[in-house]
TrEMBL record:
Keywords: Acyltransferase, Transferase. It comes from Kitasatospora aburaviensis. Transmembrane segments: none annotated. Residues 3-153 form the N-acetyltransferase domain. PROSITE patterns: GNAT (PS51186). PANTHER family: AMINOALKYLPHOSPHONATE N-ACETYLTRANSFERASE-RELATED, AMINOALKYLPHOSPHONATE N-ACETYLTRANSFERASE-RELATED-RELATED. The keyword Nucleus does not apply. Pfam families: Acetyltransf_10. This is GNAT family N-acetyltransferase. The keyword Transferase applies. InterPro entries: Acyl_CoA_acyltransferase (IPR016181), Bact_Acetyltransf (IPR050832), GNAT_dom (IPR000182).
Length: 153
């Protein structure tokens, strides 16, 4: 599958990002809409994967700067990867891993040396294969078990 991953720019791209997240998180996983949308969307960098037919296939969010400092407890040089979502038709193609690497590259461009993410427990193996290590206890986020994971870049 030939895809392009780019930084989402403008309202049309953000609509595609939100469409993927709606399909994966709200429809498939049953996450309440008011828990999916937050004020971090406006200050984050969103990556968007587009298929050869122009359809949105996946997305991920990079939280950086002051927001990342607040959310990581003030750890300098750490960014957060979040809202990684790949539509059902594109799963198993390697696109999720490509999006993770694209977020890491975007973090490096912003001076990051470490990435933190909050993984659904069922995705721990996926992130571990990409070099992430789980830390701390399991916790619930939107009613789904999660663990914090980090990777040094």
């Amino acid at each position: 599958m030939s895809t392009t991953i780019r930084v989402a720019e403008g309202e049309a791209d953000l609509a595609l990002v939100h469409g993927v997240r709606r399909e994966v998180f709200i429809v498939e996983q049953g996450i309440p809409e008011d828990e999916e949308w937050d004020d971090l969307d406006g200050t984050s960098e969103h990556l968007l994967a587009i298929g050869p037919d122009g359809a949105a296939l996946g997305t991920a969010r990079l939280i950086h700067g002051e927001q990342a400092l607040k959310l990581t407890g003030g750890i300098e040089g750490r960014v957060l990867l979040g809202r990684l979502a790949v539509v059902r038709a594109a799963r198993g193609t390697g696109l999720g891993a490509e999006l993770v690497r694209a977020v890491e590259a975007a973090g490096i461009r912003r001076g990051a040396h470490e990435v933190e993410l909050h993984a659904q427990v069922r995705a721990l193996g996926f992130y571990a294969r990409l070099g992430y290590a789980a830390e701390g206890p399991e916790y619930l986020d939107a009613g789904i078990p999660h663990r914090t994971m980090t990777r040094v870049l």
